[in-house]
Amino acid sequence: MAYPTCWTRSRWSRLILGPALALAAAAAVAGCTSSPTATPLPGINEVGPTSAPTSTAALTTAQAVGIFDSYVATTARAARAGSPALALSVLTGVQQSTFTAALKSGSTFANGSPDPNAKGTYGQYRYGPPAVYLPEPAGYPRFFVAGVTRTFTGTKTGEGMEGWVAGTEVPVDGPALMVFQQASAKTPWLLSSVSQLAAGTALPTLAVDKNGYVPQVPLTATNLLAEPEVAGALQAAVVDGGQASTAVKSVAAGPLTTGMYQGAADHAGGLTPPSGDAYQWNLMGTAYSTFALRTSSGGALVLYAMYLNSQVAVPNVISDGSPVVPGPPIAVPADFTALLPAGKAAPRETLLTQQLLSFAAVDPPAGPDKVSVIAIGGGPNYATGH
């Protein structure tokens, strides 16, 4: 398989997506309701103009909240009707791809279970009032960010429920960033990603211009620790190599960097290659849009997506040698089983899996601070084996 790529790594890495957050993060669209008692996302100022300053095409805060509310209402209707098509109608990007893959898992489209490990249901969330962050008007694709506190059905925010995403534990509910995009003037606003804040992380305060908009940061800006467009590549270097990577000089340790590397090293999720097989993993870039918003400290909040590709294979598959002699059956992680053809025997030559993940990272001004990856979303996207 040829994986899409923007960044390539000379080294592979392997991470596991456990069952706990696979549907809760990737398919958070199901059974959504709004909760008036929840509070806006803490740790960041709520911004947004009440009227467009220069262009009739620019969003207002009221319009953005209306888009968010419409998304919540539509997905609630989809859950009640058991209609995946209706749920998919409000999705794009990472959310659309991972939700489509989740549907193939055989899970029923119904009200969520209070147990995030339960199979057969999609996670049901209650959403607090969103804090809307509107970027300064620019070209298409347009976007805005809704910072919101989500509560998983049957729990109270802060109860400590956690799930596995890409080899690291992430809270099932709590503060999250939801990115909505509009591809063109004639297309609707759709949810493109939901990234849950990792435990112990916080959002920066965003800058606000005189009209109430958050300035966008050029992806090639050179006055930051790193150009925003390479934040994902720096993260990938640490996920690939851990503390041995030179990128640790620029990337802060944490659950979504060194923690993901450790998850791979420890075979998080239980994936162990058969004796004699090779085991590789690779975090790499995608063709999805990257956005960067100015923080009040002069840095950037960078929003981007990455593929997490993994491979277990007999040695000659890795080296492109011959002959390729099948080895013992390769155990397929439960989250990817349904993405393989039904009824086929376990692969004995190679197993390729792919997760599509969304991230948020804080890229500081040039100085002593490091890039911090603070939020993650997404889930399984593809699998093949033979």
Shape: globular
The ordered H/E elements are HEHHHEEEEEEEHHEEEHHEE
In total, the number of strands is 13
Measured between the Cα atoms of the first and last residue, the distance is 12 Å
Largest sheet: 11 strands, mixed
Calculate Rg over CA atoms: 20 Å
Number of helices: 8
Q: Determine the structural class based on helices, strands and strand pairing.
A: alpha+beta
Helix content: 10-25%
In round numbers, the mean pLDDT is: 79
* Percent of sequence in beta strands: 25-35%
- The number of domains is 1
Low-pLDDT regions: 1-47, 50-56, 108-122
Description:
With 386 residues, the chain is an alpha+beta fold. The chain has one domain (19-385). It is built from eight helices and 13 strands. The chain has helices at residues 19-26, 61-81, 84-88, 93-103, 231-241, 258-265, 315-318, 334-337, and strands at residues 33-34, 125-127, 131-133, 142-152, 162-165, 168-171, 174-182, 190-197, 278-285, 291-294, 300-313, 350-363, 372-385. The strands form two sheets. Strands 1, 2, 3, 4, 7, 8, 9, 10, 11, 12 and 13 form an eleven-stranded mixed beta sheet that branches. Strands 5-6 form a two-stranded antiparallel ribbon. Strand 12 and strand 13 (372-385) form a beta hairpin. The longest helix is centred in the first third of the chain and has 21 residues, at 61-81. It is globular and about 65 Å long. 55% of the residues are buried. Residues 1-47, 50-56 and 108-122 have low confidence and may be disordered.
